[in-house]
Amino acid sequence: MKLTCPCCGAVASAEAWQNDLEARAVLAAAIKLDEPIPRQLLPYLGLFRPAERSLSWKRTARLIQELSGLVATGYVQVQGKPARPCPPQVWALAMEQMTERGMAISRPMGNHNYLRKVAWQLADKLDADIEARQYREERSGTARAERQVERQQEQV
Q1: Structure pTM?
Q2: Residue 20 burial by Cβ neighbours in a 10 Å radius (0-12, 13-18, 19+)
Q3: Which residue in 11, 35, 42, 126 is a FRET match for 50, CA 20 to 30 A apart?
Q4: What is the DSSP letter of 73?
Q5: Interatomic CA distance for residues 40 and 95, integer angstroms
């Protein structure tokens, strides 16, 4: 059975993927990423593939390692902007939005900077939404009432 990677274009038998040390390392690194990132990973990695060539396993491994480091921090920051909390769901959504834009993105991408910008925009909006909700709860008194209930439960 021959398999073709939908993103890098590499063609090989199923056994070759299993026997290739670099391919195994890439697959192992990919499944270690926090959910839901692995579902968006292959299309996102396709943005790094040169038009006339395959994406090498070595480069793919480096890209996944860099991505893992970005996600592991728990926040996202772009130059000149404050850091924002950024859970894996936001990173995955940013990757999905990028792959949906497809041809509008200049390929091959050289780094994850554009992903960081998209993730920061999403994380900033999420942070603003949370802050607005907290403000509304404070103004309506529901937050105060919830804290009083929590204190009463702690005393019991």
Answers
A1: 0.78
A2: middle
A3: 35
A4: T
A5: 6
Alpha-carbon span 78 to 113, nearest angstrom: 8
Cα dihedral: 72, 50, 108, 44 (round 10): -40
From 59, 24, 64, select the one nearest 42 (Cα to Cα).
Answer: 64
What residues are paired with 4 via a beta bridge?
11
**Residue 114 in contact with residue 98, Cβ under 8 Å?**
yes
- Determine how many CB atoms are found less than 10 A away from the CB of residue 68: 15
Amino acid (one-letter) located at 139: R
Burial (0-12, 13-18, 19+ Cβ within 10 Å), 67: buried
**Which pLDDT tens digits describe the chain residue by residue (156 residues)?**
566 665 566 777 766 667 778 888 888 899 899 999 999 999 999 999 888 888 888 999 999 999 999 999 999 999 999 999 999 999 999 999 999 987 788 889 999 999 999 999 999 999 888 888 888 877 776 666 666 667 777 776
Q: Name residue, tokens 């990695």.
A: 45
Largest CA distance in the chain: 68
Instruction: Give the C-alpha separation, 91 to 74, whole Å.
Output: 10
